[in-house]
Amino acid sequence: MIVFGSTLSPYVRKVMAFGAEKGLSLELQPAGMGRGGPDFEAASPFRKMPGFKDDDFLISDSSAIITYLEAKFPEPNLIPAEPRARARTIWYEELADTLMMAAGGAIFVNRFIRPRVLKVEADPVAAETAQRDLLPPIFDYLEGVIPVSGFLVEDRITLADIAIASPMATLGCIGVESCPERHPRLTAWAATILARPSFAGALQKDQELISAMGGPVPAQDAPRVGNGGKKS
User: Do 165 and 64 fall into the same domain?
Assistant: First the structure.
């Protein structure tokens, strides 16, 4: 099974981590931004990462790919069967895919993708606004809902943890992290989830890649999220 894309994309990272937690061997092939070839184009007609291929089956979108993997490889189940737990898991995935990515995307694109990868002008104001105004309420919410067990749903690893951790991993690669003083539970949770083998190897490679490309473009004022506007 092939996943097309780059784990710098939280959507690709989510699929790869999901597969790893299931014990699957997913081959990652570079795609996106003009790369990928005919199989990627067939899987993802709008050239969005990730694309996916399993023999003659081609599909795109991280949620669609995960739905396929969960149905084809039901054990261990990472989307709970119990109705309330399942609904809560999908809620966390949607939170990550929409609200977190709206904020995180503006930061990552303008601090790294546009200036370092595309070599075009960035919008630092958009990045600073997202970091100052959009991420803190999300992190405040997560701080209040992380159970003592350290897992978001059913006291075990599920898609909920994988989905929320994926954009946090990408943002962490450019130094945007939760504030340990304001969000101690979230900070500890993220460190634990991202240390799992399903995340750790790819995350180290992404950090090395970003560093080799010059790192993120520094913001004039880039505090940790929720740190009261102070640099840390």
Answer: no
CB within 8 Å of 231: residues ≥ 6 apart: 221, 222, 223
Report the DSSP beta bridge partners of residue 28. 3
DSSP 173: T
Spatial distance between the Cα atoms of 133 and 156, rounded to a whole number of angstroms: 31
b/e sequence 26-38, b meaning 16+ C-beta within 10 Å = bebbebbeeebee
Q: Among 170, 195, 187, which Cα is nearest to 224's?
A: 187
pTM as predicted = 0.92
Residues 94 and 162 in one domain: yes
The number of folded domains in the chain is 2
Mean pLDDT confidence for 168-177: 96
Q: How far apart are CA 175 and CA 171, in angstroms?
A: 7
Give a yes or no: residue 107 inside a domain.
yes
Q: Is residue 133 part of a domain?
A: yes
Distance, CA of 196 to CA of 10 (rounded, Å): 16
Give pLDDT tens digits for 15-52: 999 999 999 999 999 998 778 889 999 999 999 999 99
Q: Among 38, 72, 106, give the residue marking a domain's end.
A: 72
